[in-house]
Amino acid sequence: MIASLSGRVGHVGLDRLVVEVGGVGMLVHTTPRTAAELRAGEDVTVSTTLVVREDSLTLYGFGSAGERDMFETVQTVSGVGPRLALAMLSVLTPDEVRAALTTKDVATLTKIPGVGKKSAERLVLELGDKVGMPSAAGVGESAPAAAVASGGDGRVEQVTEALVGLGWTGKQAGDAVGRVVASADDDATVATLLRLALRDLGR
């Protein structure tokens, strides 16, 4: 198990980054929230988990051990794989997930793409008593708004593609991006637009 990586950020995408460790560039899949906090060229340490499949080895990275632990915990529920777990943490912080589970807030959980009412109820049933109570400071906190991608004509396409990759339909993603672009500053970065679109879809 690769529990963490420390190195220089070689590249930052909307939902992935490359961490250069000992001359090797390690591709790390992550949430848009974590990616938005990083800049190419800076030193970073990310908490990681390695998902092993017959035909692939996929590394997922997070800004904190708590976020990684929640990623692993939700996957103990039948039907929840890495993609859905990553989508969950793209919409909600670990403390928001914990709060929804412990208070049986099915409505909040169903805002996550790929989580229907039955799936949300199963998550609550299996994890509600296991995840503990959220910290008072963590619920509702948003991540720092560091921008990592430059704006440009391709902003809408990039953000829409990232949202579809997280599980929303093309129409849902396109509508959300349209709403946030209309209200955002003209020079808003891709990372900013993605963060706003995730907030819009989480309502």
From TrEMBL:
Record's GO cellular component terms: cytoplasm; Holliday junction helicase complex; Holliday junction resolvase complex
One Pfam match: HHH_5
SMART domains attached to this UniProt entry: HhH1
GO molecular function, one term: four-way junction helicase activity
Domain called Helix-hairpin-helix DNA-binding motif class: residue spans: 72-91, 107-126
Positions of the UniProt region annotated as Domain III: 147-203
Superkingdom, taxonomy of origin: Bacteria
Subcellular location: Cytoplasm
GO biological process: DNA recombination; DNA repair
Function description: The RuvA-RuvB-RuvC complex processes Holliday junction (HJ) DNA during genetic recombination and DNA repair, while the RuvA-RuvB complex plays an important role in the rescue of blocked DNA replication forks via replication fork reversal (RFR). RuvA specifically binds to HJ cruciform DNA, conferring on it an open structure. The RuvB hexamer acts as an ATP-dependent pump, pulling dsDNA into and through the RuvAB complex. HJ branch migration allows RuvC to scan DNA until it finds its consensus sequence, where it cleaves and resolves the cruciform DNA.
Record text about domains: Has three domains with a flexible linker between the domains II and III and assumes an 'L' shape. Domain III is highly mobile and contacts RuvB.
Family statement drawn from the similarity comment of this UniProt entry: Belongs to the RuvA family.
Name the record gives this protein: Holliday junction branch migration complex subunit RuvA
Gene: ruvA
